[in-house]
């Protein structure tokens, strides 16, 4: 008991020291924990701020990149627009030239009045050219070529106003080639289909010539008489009278 009482202050002192050390250790640990939490909070705040800054920076970079891409796209579109405008100008110029040339070609194809056998007729330059080509062969004595040219003309221009002239010279070329039957048919068709043509009296006179060559004298006399009766004032009628008198 004496031992316990004597050692009680020491024990108390020791206990106080031990308690004080434990309390101090406990305090230091709490502060450290709080400091760590504060630091972690600060780190978190810094990380969040950095993330926001990085996000904003990325947004700015993306915006800058987008603007740069748009600038390039605008530049490309402007280039395409310039090319398109150049193409439009070229097409307009080509069309102007095309329409100008077309107008000139149409004018060349327009019927023009020409005088043949004392008549004014409208024919296209193309028809007159093809007719003249056959006539040139005929005048040069190239009767086979003339026949071919005139036949092509009749096939190509069946409604041409030059048809009576073409038929007459076709029949004349056939007669010159000794094709009397063909010449007779050609001239007969001319006189029948175009009785008002200035070539109709000549066609009848040519018919009589072919009939005489074919020894068809009665037919020749009949044709000559028809010529004189239908076209008494024509030059062909004068020749027909002389021939008819010779056949009597």
Number of helices: 8
Order of helices and strands: HEEHHHHHHH
In the sheet with the most strands, the strands line up as: 1-2
Morphology? rod-shaped
- Indicate the proportion of strand residues: under 5%
**Main beta-sheet annotation:** 2 strands, antiparallel
The beta-strand count equals 2
Category by helix and strand content: mainly alpha
- Separation of the first and last Cα atoms: 201 Å
Mean pLDDT, as a whole number? 81
Low-confidence stretches: 1-8, 14-26
How would you portray this structure in words?
The chain is mostly helical. Helices cover about 85% and strands about 5% of the residues. The protein has 8 helices and 2 strands; from the N terminus they run H-E-E-H-H-H-H-H-H-H. It has a two-stranded antiparallel sheet with strand order 1-2. Strand 1 (about 110-115) and strand 2 (about 120-125) form a beta hairpin. It is rod-shaped. Mean pLDDT is about 80; it is low at about 1-10 and about 15-25.
In summary, what is this structure?
The chain is mostly helical. It has eight helices and two strands, in the order αββααααααα.
Topology:
Layout: H1 2-109, E1 112-116, E2 119-123, H2 125-139, H3 143-156, H4 163-176, H5 180-193, H6 200-213, H7 217-230, H8 235-247
Antiparallel strand pairs: 1-2
Helix pairs in contact: 2-3, 3-4, 4-5, 4-6, 5-6, 6-7, 6-8, 7-8
């Amino acid at each position: 008991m004496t031992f316990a009482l004597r050692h009680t202050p020491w024990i108390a002192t020791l206990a106080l020291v031990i308690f004080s050390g434990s309390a101090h250790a406990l305090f230091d640990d709490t502060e450290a924990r709080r400091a760590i939490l504060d630091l972690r909070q600060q780190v978190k705040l810094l990380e969040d701020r950095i993330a926001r800054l990085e996000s904003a920076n990325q947004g700015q970079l993306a915006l800058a990149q987008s603007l740069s891409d748009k600038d390039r796209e605008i530049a490309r579109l402007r280039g395409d627009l310039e090319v398109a405008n150049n193409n439009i100008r070229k097409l307009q110029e080509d069309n102007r030239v095309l329409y100008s040339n077309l107008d000139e070609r149409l004018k060349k194809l327009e019927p023009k009045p020409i005088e043949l056998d004392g008549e004014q007729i409208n024919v296209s330059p193309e028809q007159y050219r093809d007719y003249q080509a056959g006539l040139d062969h005929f005048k040069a004595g190239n009767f086979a070529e003339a026949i071919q040219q005139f036949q092509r003309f009749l096939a190509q221009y069946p409604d041409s106003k030059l048809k009576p002239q073409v038929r007459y010279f076709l029949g004349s070329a056939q007669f010159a080639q000794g094709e009397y039957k063909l010449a007779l048919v050609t001239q007969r068709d001319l006189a029948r289909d175009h009785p008002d043509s200035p070539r109709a009296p000549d066609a009848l006179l040519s018919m009589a010539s072919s009939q005489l060559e074919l020894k068809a004298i009665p037919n020749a006399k009949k044709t000559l008489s028809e010529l004189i009766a239908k076209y008494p004032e024509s030059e062909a009628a004068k020749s027909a009278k002389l021939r008819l008198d010779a056949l009597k």
